[in-house]
């Protein structure tokens, strides 16, 4: 278990995130949840900037440094003519420099295969769709690796098949490597299905640190997302919720 803390985050004179402490379980997915403007991106960005942003992550007594943390920002639009394979290999540029051994190329290709991108390995990044680019950028971060992966809405551009495939892959990756993966998600059902831990943010504050099911209780959903949840059961008996507009009588 890693222990994280963040000092207050400000932009100009505005405080956008209050100080907070939370834990990040190793080998698991932690969901950062909250409505628009809650502070999810600010939290992930601060974690990735570390000391410069007043953030610290401790593994016991050891403080993790920038090399231990791998960050995927929310906004992306790659106009580069770089090939997909080269883009993934760039993930290890600090370690490899200009010498790229065949083993690294093989690893990068295998990662592309596992993310369903093998056929696109030689294609230019600029010639990919938004969802394909997002998966390549995720592959690049996975190729780089780190004790913590901070991913800002890594499934925002993905279709339903790829949302499930990517989150399933991330869950296996975390378990296999012991990485603490912390990711923001707007789909609360996906968060409940794939994440074991959740940080619920609202109005720049950490409301609770809980399992997703407990964090996403009906009063919290009404209060912070301003929708009424209807609970159903799927074929595997998992609770799934359907949001309805709140009616004001
Ligand atoms: N440069 C800035 N200057 C002033 N306020 C900012 C700035 N950047 C972000 N904010 C504000 O900080 C708050 C948190 O923003 P943040 O992007 O972290 O929210 P979020 O939870 O990731 O939202 P979303 O779900 O819409 O991506 C918002 O109210 C936003 O308007």
Automatic annotation (TrEMBL):
One of its GO terms (molecular function) is ATP binding. It comes from Thioclava litoralis. InterPro entries: AAA+_ATPase, ABC_transporter-like_ATP-bd, P-loop_NTPase. The keyword Transport does not apply. Pfam families: ABC_tran (PF00005). SMART domains: AAA. Residues 1-228 form the ABC transporter domain. This is ABC transporter ATP-binding protein. PROSITE patterns: ABC_TRANSPORTER_2. The lineage of its organism: Bacteria, Pseudomonadati, Pseudomonadota, Alphaproteobacteria, Rhodobacterales. Keywords: ATP-binding, Nucleotide-binding, Plasmid. The keyword RNA-binding does not apply.
